[in-house]
Amino acid sequence: MKNEDVIVTEGLTKRFGDFTAVDQISFRVHEGEIFGFLGANGAGKTTAMRMLCGLSHPTSGKGTVAGFDIDRQSEMVKKNIGYMSQKFSLYEDLKVWENFRLFGGIYGMKDKQIKQKTDRLLEELGFQGERGTLVKALPLGWKQKLAFSLSIFHEPRIVFLDEPTGGVDPVTRRQFWELIYEAADRGITVFVTTHYMDEAEYCDRLSIMVDGQIKALDSPARLKEQFHVKNMDEVFHLLARSATRTDS
Amino acid sequence: MKQFISFVKKEFLHILRDKRTMLIVLCMPIVQIILFGFAITNEVKDARIVVFDPSHDAETSRIKQRIESSSYFTITEEIKDYKQISEVFKKGKVNLAVVFSENFADNLLHTGEASVQVIADGSEPNQASSQVGYISQILSSCQQELMAQYHVPFSIKPDTHMLYNPQRKDAYNFVPGVMGIIMILICAMMTSIAIVREKETGTMEILLASPVKPIYIILAKMVPYMVLSLINLTSILLLATFVLGVPPGNLFWLVMLSVLFIILSLSLGLLISTLVDTQAAAMLASAMGLLTPTILLSGIIFPIESMPAILQYLSSIVPARWYISALRRLMIQGVSVQYVLQEFSVLAIMAFVLIAVSLKKFKIRLM
Domain check: are B53 and B186 in the same one? Predict the structure, then answer.
């Protein structure tokens, strides 16, 4: 693992009126690692992630992604990241290959390059037969795998995944994580939010957010040791118990 | 540029895949033109008349013949009793009743005065007033003939004459109106819905997290709707020319004006999309905020001159009012462009302001 930090934040804060969604978070993510970003619903995960992706301005504090300032150089940040949102993020009324063509086009890839890469990816996923299928006709698990492939289609340095496996069965989730590992092996840094604790175990390092603040940050093994518990579930419950915010 | 083209392709696919919507969009102007052209009309044609004629003399028969021979009226019945009139109206069998006084010819020849009563169905006031207008014309021309016959030195002839629309064709009135409505519907309503749909499904977030410039996203959304509007413009003009006999007049400036109005409507749609978050809200906002004022305040149905002062002021912020007013003059009066400069400049200023505001808002909302 390389030592360079591809995400650095210092006192990153986002307020909506009186409500502080993200409260002075500071952390570093190393290049090539799988970084889990955990927290209960409403803990501020999505807001923090949106700031990192240049979708939302921080109220105070600063951060860099891939070496670029998230507030002032968001255009450069966007060129270096992939993003898969909580909501399902492919165009349902486009065919599989049309989605690939669109996103390849957005990142300025050449037509030939897009075509080759689409063919290779579909083959790897075993979806060759679905090239010309409308996305809405595919099962949810397939769509999510496709959405992930699409978010790293342009080989970004970092990919942000916002609860990518919501509503998917355990087998498909497992397969999804295999894709994540492959991406990380290729050197793509993976920043993933989740609230499935079994998935937390798959991460190299993870942070746990409670009420907008980061309460713990380490590898899963060390966290378990630190809290003297057997699994991540218990770590999470110990920390989340202090939460004052309810699901929003 | 490559980015932009990928986007435009995608937008066209969205529209082409949604066959039902596309069908509605392309057929709507045709259906509207045909409906307004042939079904919904104030023109008087074969209006049904009952006559009550107690005198039965030469003069009344002459008048009746004149009425019957015009293409506007058909005499369906001669009733024997004045009291039957309210009955036939209630049954909805007739549009007009013509009642002659007793001893019509005698009175006319000896006293120079005879009366005819015309009773119309006021529950449809527009229809009724034009029918009354037509029948008075027939009556006055009969009167004139009589005067000539009996050498009465003075005759006063009520002469109504309709400028630009001598046959009182409604098409002249509604073709510009339909064009205004269609443009607002397709450009503003559909664009706002298309942009908001991306917000709703979450794809907008993905686009904004990508390096593509927001201006490209917006422009790419607008291109297909602009194309659709131009197709509709063509079909409306063709129908108007060949089916309704309303030629486009000053074609070049008419197209220029329409393109300006299309751009303006597109930016209205964009503005709405920055204000709301759901497709349902976008639809409601376009219907209440754009379509209703367009129909009520732009002079399509109610003439602006006869509105209360406050509504007249209000109507001047409705873009369609200026578009339709300029269209009327270009199409029907066939004037050259310097006569519609005011409308042109109002629309241009509106378009400029709207584009500026909505582009600014679009960025603030999503970044």
Answer: no
Asked if the structure places residue B157 within a domain, the reply is no
State the SS3 of chain B: CHHHHHHHHHHHHHHHHCHHHHHHHHHHHHHHHHHHHHHCCCCCCCEEEEEECCCCCHHHHHHHHHHHHCCCEEEEEEECCCCHHHHHHHCCCCCEEEEECCCHHHHHHHCCCCCEEEEECCCCHHHHHHHHHHHHHHHHHHHHHHHHHCCCCCCCCCCCCCCCCCCCCCHHHHHHHHHHHHHHHHHHHHHHHHHHHHHHHCHHHHHHCCCCCHHHHHHHHHHHHHHHHHHHHHHHHHHHHHCCCCCCCCHHHHHHHHHHHHHHHHHHHHHHHHHCCCHHHHHHHHHHHHHHHHHHHCCCCCCHHHCCHHHHHHHCCCHHHHHHHHHHHHHHHCCCHHHHHHHHHHHHHHHHHHHHHHHHHHHHHHC
Residues B77-104 pLDDT 10s: 888 888 888 788 777 778 888 888 888 7
- The distance of A51 to chain B (nearest Cα, Å) reads 10
- How many angstroms from the chain centroid is the CA of residue B270? 26
Q: A129: domain range?
A: 5-240
- A76 within some domain: yes
Q: Which residue of A has its CA nearest to B203?
A: A89
Q: Is residue A248 part of a domain?
A: no
Q: Residue B54's domain is classified under what CATH number?
A: 3.40.1710.10
Among B6, B18, B209, select the one facing A93 at the smallest CB separation. Answer: B18
Return all residues near A109 (Cβ < 8 A) that are at least 6 apart.
Answer: A117, A153, A154
Indicate if ipTM > 0.85: no
Which domain does B95 fall in, by range? Answer: 47-149
A245 in contact with B, Cβ within 8 Å: no
A51 touches chain B (CB under 8 A): no
pTM of the model: 0.76
Residues 6+ apart with CB under 8 A from A139: none
Predicted local distance difference test score (pLDDT) of residue B111? 74
Same domain, B103 and B120: yes
Phi first, then psi, for residue A41 (nearest 5°) are -60, 135
Amino acid sitting at position B5: I
Cβ contact, residue pair B206, A89, below 8 Å: yes
Residue B196: Cβ-neighbour burial (10 angstroms; 0-12, 13-18, 19+): buried
For residue A143, what is the domain's CATH number?
3.40.50.300
Q: Is there a single domain that holds both residue B212 and residue B360?
A: yes
Distance from CA of A2 to the nearest CA of B (A): 26
pLDDT surpasses 70 at A79: yes
Report how many domains make up chain A.
Answer: 1
